[in-house]
Give the backbone structure.
Amino acid sequence: MHDLMLVTERKPVGALTVSSPYDGRELARLPTGGPDHVDDALSVAHRLFRDRSGWLSVPERADILIRAAEIMKSQVEELTRLAASEGGKPWNDSKVEVLRAIDGMHLAVEALRGDVGDVIPVGTTRATLGRSAFTQKEPVGVVAAVSAFNHPLNLIVHQVAPATATGCPVIVKPADDTPLSCLRLVEILREAGLPDEWCQVLIADDLEAAEKLVTDPRLGFFSFIGSARVGWMLRSKLAPGVRCALEHGGAAPVVLAEPFDRDAALHSIAKGGFYHAGQVCVSVQRVFAPAAEAADIAKDLADIAANLTVGPPEEESTDVGPLIRAAEVDRVATWVDESVAAGATLVTGGEKLSDSCYAPTVRVSGRRVLQEH
């Protein structure tokens, strides 16, 4: 079991079992924290932010992020295996995620060094003639980052690396399904020289603990990646003055308008729709095609889908892995069955392959090519 990655002396209140979404095998057991743990973490982070004498300098922050990126680069295979095993994204796609995460660390350094303040000429009246003003960027405060499951390493980098670069203490809550990549990233940052109190990880024991983290007035910024329902609900409970950034999903339709390269379009649509079993905020969900070509496009897209290999995410030959939970497989199956009952034509797929996997599916409804996974 991992250590509780909060700066607190309190004992864990419970444990979370992390399992493979593909075959259900146990990957790890993690200690969980409750509201008192959250209060301890916030106290540490807020005290750190309020004491300017303890702030890390720009060169120190840059060096930490660069060293962390170097460590990540030396462990690409290990990080890929970890992300694939807990999140279910196939090996090749998980490796791309890891490489993007490494690039994200470098981008944070570039922004740290290049995104500076401005000099503002104010000599526009006789009273201000010959004078100027300037802005200087400062850390906004303690950051609470709540993340999603579908990119277990890269999304954490999107939240933690900018906070670290700007000098904000951050408390990050990964998705319960995929916390291991987050824990490893924070371990790497600490190996690279980031003091423990600058980045803490909350594995929440319950919703009360998670909500306490988000709604506390000691926060300066709230970063959320997840469903619109949860994101807007949490935003409504923020303390006055707390800034936030919400990243939600989308509907992602594709419109095929003449002229278009049919082969290129079909392969792009297939990748966009079946990538990570459709569990991405910009996954292709609907395809609108010219009426005269819709049936042929559906057939060709179905041929591509039928030849995708569904299997273990850790294998390089796998194209499509599992959905994150069995309940999601049931949900997709219900939606497909309802659409067929309502008159859609099933071209390929439309069946559960196991409790964790659903066949890549293409349906036609009226003049529309519908795609779902």
